[in-house]
Predict the 3D structure of the following.
Amino acid sequence: MSDPTVAEAWVAGPLRRLMEDARLISGVLLYPTGRAVGQFGFSNAADVMSICALTSAINASSRELGRQLDGKPFYEMHHAGADRQVFMARATAAAQEFLFVGVFDRESSLGVVEIYFAEFQKSLEKLRPEKQPAAIRPSGDFEGELNRSLDALFGPIGKK
Amino acid sequence: MKDVTQVVATLSHVPGVIAAIVVGASDGLIVEASAVMGAAAGADDPRKHTAALAAYLYSKVTRASHAARLGSPVFMRLEAEQGHICVVGAGDVVLVTIVTPKANLGRVRLDMMTAAKGES
């Protein structure tokens, strides 16, 4: 397993612990706007870019679906594939919201992922820097935001 | 199939059993659980963690047992400083009990095995 690469250093420890304890194959932590904060298990920026865009969109639509069906947003989603499973959930640190998407197989289980994700959530809350960066709001430049966060994780394209 | 609620109720009444839980074998999620005996109000609930990790551990023990060519495990007991965790597989679910150190483990084992036979 490779160490997580992060755009914000304070999330590296909690992400590594989540990856190891929950035995996740890969995972991405991102802002709801689609900007990546950290990742593990990926070596290709394009994969992370697709996952961020899809996770952001799935989060928006599942929230709305939750509101329509249950009167409140859905915050967690699990999809069990034949070999691999996807877990997607939100995490908050003070007022800042994050999304996490992780992939696991038979070496782990949904129950195990859920309990370690709860611990990850507590770590984020505890380690959150006192001085927060300016609130992350959609800038309207979705592609630009994605590219900037991927540059932070993988280095600028073409300069490697 | 025997009702999981009944299985949990039966096991939770065995002397020394602090909590009885039926857990999904593959997902580690609680299917049915008893209350935790003697738990103080507001104390952390150990059932979700215990259930998920015990089911996970049981799946690893099953692999180890098969690797050793011993077949499937019949009964698993984890002895800790302040009690035991007992696990028995029953098809798609595993039965988990949290037990005091002074419990009659023979009785716990027998009742769990009997419940598992009715369950699977």
Summary: Chain B has a mean pLDDT of 92. The first helix of chain B runs from residue 4 to 12. The helical segments of chain B are 4-12, 47-67, 105-119.
